[in-house]
Amino acid sequence: MISSFIPFVSNVEAEGSGSYQATNISFAPGADETKYNFSWYSPETSNPGVVEYAKKSDMTGEVFPSELAKTTTATVANASSGYSTHKATITDVESASEYVYRIGDGNGKWSDTYSFKTHDTDSYNFLIMGDTQIGSGKVPSDTEGWVNTLNKAYAKYPDSSFILSVGDQVNNANSEEEYAGYFTPKELKQVPTATTIGNHDNSNSYKQHFNVPNETTYGATAAGGDYSFTRGDTLFMVLNSNNKNASEHNAFMEETVAANPDAKWKFVVLHHSIYSAASHSLETSIVKLREELVPTIDQLDIDAVLMGHDHSYVRTYQMEGLQPLKNQMIDEQGRVINPTGTMYLTVNSSSGSKYYNLKETPEPYSAVRSQLKTPTFSNVTVTPTSVEFSTYRVDTMEQVDTYTIVKDPSIPVKLPELKKVHLEASGEQVPTNPSSFFEDVKLTLTGENKSGGPFDVPYSDISYKVKEEGQISISPSGEITVLEGAKPGKIQVWAEVQSNGKKFKTKKMHLTIVEHAEETIVEKGSNWKYLDDGSDQGTAWKAPEFDDSSWKSGLAPLGYPISEDRPMFGDIQTLIGYGPDSANKYPTTYFRTTFELEDLSKIGEMARINFGIDDSVILYLNGQEIGRHNLPEGDISYDKYLSDLAGSSVADESAYESFDLTKEDLAHLVQGTNVLAAEIHQDRPTSSDVYWDMEFVTTVKSDAGEKKNKGKDKK
């Protein structure tokens, strides 16, 4: 099947009359199915290039049919040093046909000749590719993975109408080497690709490489703005989510939908997933974008939102108003019939360049979530009455998920009624004071319908009950707050639900209010000594008596670049070095700080260290290891990156991490001066960031202060 994509070479070129040096050829959908967009690089020139195209049936052997071909002239502009970028659109392309095209300089020199097929627009399929990000690993291996994915995807779906890439085509926005890797697959010259601007693409270089249709100024950055295209009665709206001004994206979607009133299927595409499950899922900017885009997505009745960025896979339930709508009509084939709400799909890497680990706790919106750590792709099949989403792992080509939406007004929707409700709690103990040691307890109510499937119960239908009044309050979404003056002890809670005129009651459960007090003995933002010269410090550096007077110092968070931040700890305050070569950053940086304990006896039996990290750490207290994160056990050489080691992964940038210390760990504390030492390892030589800050919190014995005062009274 793949052999059909081998370029045709015209006799003129074969005779050696000179070929046109067109590189980085981008072939993309046009505004509708009758148009296709092209862009390419040439050696620097002020002369615009041309695209010549004709029906393949007009060819004689391998000779390009110039006398029957149409020609369109490109625009030309300066690109990277020594190159020009050309952009052109071909029109009046017929459906269900096969064409040939070639690119020329306008003066008789031509590229190779390539072919492409067009398809009917009533029923067709397209492929979704996620975060190829050529260069986030090594360019050759990333390119090889990308080529392999496209080869296998088109072997399975050889009649695909186009590719949809959800962003981060490259890792470094201005790297021509990485763009050359991205454009390597021969399929990209023969199957149109609609690209999305990712955060790693966000520069003028993206605009120079790609030619998108119907581009607007909404959502604009240096890379470009929001754009749209149609295929039959399907509307695709592609957002530049690097621009966080949601009002612009909302205006774009509203105006585009209004301009396409006959669109039956409506898809929104953006890079920054607003419903994902890994490193980026809880970032403040992501949550804010979700809250600001979802009302418009709901209002416009969008069928699906297609996304990337989080290097993992998530398919949500049908979503509306930030809530999952689980109670849908499902037919015997497992298809969702005339559903309400929107499905959000986050796709994983299609090159295998990088993966993020999933959060431990599944999200309420995730119907399917996975991290297979192998390249994947998705296929979408569109018919007049259905859209089917199927996802495959590239190594085995096993289908790992499938989901079908049916929109057919002739099928009456009958939703199964509520049968029973269940109440669960995320924990059993609720502390009297805010705590670093107890997770916030949340109640989760789930419903079961009469068909045995899930029934989504709206918050407005739930009433939480507490037998002991004045102890706690419970929000509509189930969060628990201990009220002032609450007394330690057991409490009894349950929930009641009103649905279709009937009342349902959960079983009662017990929670325990516990008395709690704690103290922070090392504050975040403390002053740290650090060594960032790439040297091997052996083991002596972590000992309390080590002389670090020659080291530099600064307030945490420390790291690079200066714009880096983490939840809880915020923006970097002290910029450290990484060496003379940004492509070969130092693998290890050392940090030390001291703190004083005036009264060791008041320290309780529980302690926690919360920290912000990129990418890994071994932490020592008074010379003894008390925790390591994102590193395997055993000695780790100073010259090792995480990518050199088994059992490590890229840091989760949307979260802070924690070490829970044991009694044995706390036994290393001393009254007086204590020393913390942190050994930070970088992910890989080209990684863009390092980050370190922490806080040290312990419980306080409730009678420590009382005993101390009694001792003073006796004196």
What can you tell me about this protein's structure?
By secondary structure, the chain is mainly beta. It is 11% helix and 37% strand. Mean pLDDT is 92; it is low at 1-18 and 704-715. Helix 2 (139-156) runs parallel beside helix 3 (176-182) and helix 5 packs parallel to helix 6.
**Strand order in the sheet with the most strands:** 11-10-9-23-24-25-20-19
- Radius of gyration equals 30 Å
Q: Give start-end ranges of low-pLDDT stretches.
A: 1-18, 704-715
Shape: flat
Average per-residue pLDDT, rounded, comes to 92
Report the end-to-end length measured between terminal Cα atoms.
Answer: 93 Å
Kindly estimate the percentage of residues that lie in beta strands according to DSSP: 35-45%
With helices defined by DSSP (H or I, 4 residues minimum), what is the helix count? 8
Strand elements, count: 49
Q: Helical amount among residues, as a percent range? A: 10-25%
What summary fits the major beta sheet? 8 strands, mixed
Q: What class do helices, strands and sheet pairing give?
A: mainly beta
Question: Topology, pairings included?
Answer:
Layout (H helix, E strand, L loop, with lengths): L10 H4 L8 E7 L6 E8 L6 E6 L14 E4 L1 E4 L4 E8 L7 E7 L9 E4 L6 E6 L9 H18 L5 E4 L10 H7 L10 E2 L9 H6 L17 E5 L2 E5 L7 H14 L5 E8 L11 H16 L4 E5 L4 E4 L2 E2 L2 E2 L4 E2 L5 E2 L5 E4 L19 E5 L5 E7 L3 E8 L5 E8 L11 E8 L3 E3 L11 E7 L4 E2 L6 E5 L5 E3 L5 E3 L6 E11 L2 E4 L3 E6 L3 E5 L4 E5 L20 E4 L2 E3 L4 E2 L3 E2 L2 E2 L12 E10 L5 E12 L1 E6 L2 E6 L27 E5 L1 H4 L5 E10 L8 E11 L3 H11 L1
Parallel strand pairs: 9-10, 10-11, 13-14, 14-15, 15-21, 20-25, 27-35, 39-42
Antiparallel strand pairs: 1-2, 2-6, 3-4, 3-7, 5-6, 7-8, 9-23, 12-13, 16-21, 16-22, 17-18, 19-20, 23-24, 24-25, 26-28, 28-29, 30-33, 31-32, 33-34, 33-35, 36-49, 37-38, 37-43, 39-49, 40-41, 43-48, 44-47, 44-49, 45-46, 45-48
Helix pairs in contact: 2-3, 5-6
